[in-house]
Design brief:
This protein is mainly alpha-helical and about 180 residues long. It has a domain of about 80 residues: Up-down Bundle (Four Helix Bundle (Hemerythrin (Met), subunit A)), CATH 1.20.120. A two-stranded parallel ribbon has the order 1-2. Helix 2 runs antiparallel to helix 3. The longest helix is centred in the middle third of the chain and has 26 residues. The relative contact order is 0.08.
């Protein structure tokens, strides 16, 4: 049963992510991104990472995406506005960077060289001591310790992705005024 749910939620997440990228309307793309975040939260629930699932829904699907939706709706972003002279160059550069990152990801996934796993210690009477490894507990403190030690790189990458999304919203929403030259004779 868990396998079926995994495939269902993975398909929902992937379809929503592809629709988000291909959507010509910014509001529809943001809504698809919310669905992708909720699908990711459902996958966290299947992994029994309830804290991560709640954070995913509250922080990303809730706060961040509502903020993006308000910005998109308030600035009234039109489909064809802004940056048309650079659109083809940026599209080509983004496609090249995306393809390069996909190749690096595939090569590193099959190379066998991964980050070393930290040792998990059994819970002792004093779970606040982090000596040789990460204590295996379900407390938020041990989760935070894991997040800022072992998983620091993915955490930082997520922050940069959100920064890039915010910059993208600002660039898309910037209105370009056409200055007309008038003859003053």
């Amino acid at each position: 049963m868990l396998d079926i749910l995994f495939y269902v939620f993975s398909a929902i997440t992937l379809i929503a992510a592809v629709l988000m990228v291909l959507s010509p309307n910014a509001v529809n793309g943001a809504m698809c991104m919310i669905v992708a975040f909720l699908g990711t939260a459902a996958l966290f629930v299947l992994l029994e990472a309830y804290f991560l699932a709640i954070l995913q829904v509250l922080v990303y699907a809730g706060a961040v995406m509502v903020l993006f939706l308000f910005i998109i709706m308030l600035l009234d972003v039109e489909k064809g506005e802004g940056g048309n002279e650079y659109k083809d160059k940026f599209t080509l550069a983004a496609a090249a960077v995306g393809f390069l990152l996909a190749v690096i990801l595939i090569c590193s996934a099959f190379s066998g060289a991964h980050l070393p796993e930290p040792t998990l210690n059994p819970v002792t009477e004093n779970p606040t001591v982090f000596d040789a490894g990460i204590p295996f507990t379900t407390s938020a403190k041990s989760f935070g310790y894991s997040l800022f030690t072992k998983y620091m790189l993915p955490f930082q990458v997520t922050g940069f992705l959100l920064l890039a999304a915010m910059i993208g919203v600002i660039v898309v929403s910037k209105k370009h005024e056409v200055v007309e030259e008038s003859d003053h004779s």
